[in-house]
Amino acid sequence: MVRDKLHREYQFADFVHAFGFMATAAIAIEAMGHHPEWSNVYNRVTVDLTTHDAGGITAKDVELARKLEALAARLAGV
Fold first, then answer.
1. Domain spans, the chain
2. CATH architecture of 6-76
3. Backbone phi and psi for residue 45, each to the nearest 5 degrees, phi listed first
4. 6, 32, 36, 59: CA torsion to nearest 10
5. pLDDT band with cut points at 50, 70 and 90 for residue 77
6. Is the separation of the CB atoms in 15 and 43 below 8 Å?
7. Cα–Cα distance between 76 and 46 in angstroms, integer?
8. CB 57 within 8 A of CB 10
9. What digits encode the pLDDT tens for the residues 26-69?
10. For residue 69, how far is the Cα from the chain centroid?
11. Of 62, 37, 47, 50, whose CA–CA distance to 5 is shortest?
12. 8 Å CB contact between 51 and 57
């Protein structure tokens, strides 16, 4: 938790892997209709999750965090 948001910084081998993570995650994110605050700098992707309408972290944030963790683990193994 950072500033009342679920916070995670992912590091990948290079920019292509970091961007690939974001592109792949975007499909699940759009399907959920629940969009993160995120940014990419070279091989790093920073993600903050909160549900603005609810004023804090909800089950949707936890679900998305789990999906992102699973995807990052899968891509790290490539």
1. 6-76
2. 2-Layer Sandwich (3.30)
3. -125, 125
4. -20
5. low
6. yes
7. 16
8. no
9. 999 999 999 999 999 999 999 999 998 888 999 999 999 999 99
10. 8
11. 50
12. yes
Locate tokens 């891509």: which residue? 75
Concatenating the DSSP letter of every residue in 44-69 gives EEEEEE-BTTTTB--HHHHHHHHHHH
Chain length of the chain: 78
Token readout for 35 is: 């969009």
Residue 51 has which token pair? 């549900």
Q: Whole-angstrom distance between the N-terminal and C-terminal Cα of the chain?
A: 28
Helix%, strand%, coil% for the chain, nearest 5: 45, 25, 25
Say how far apart CA 74 and CA 28 lie, in whole Å. 15
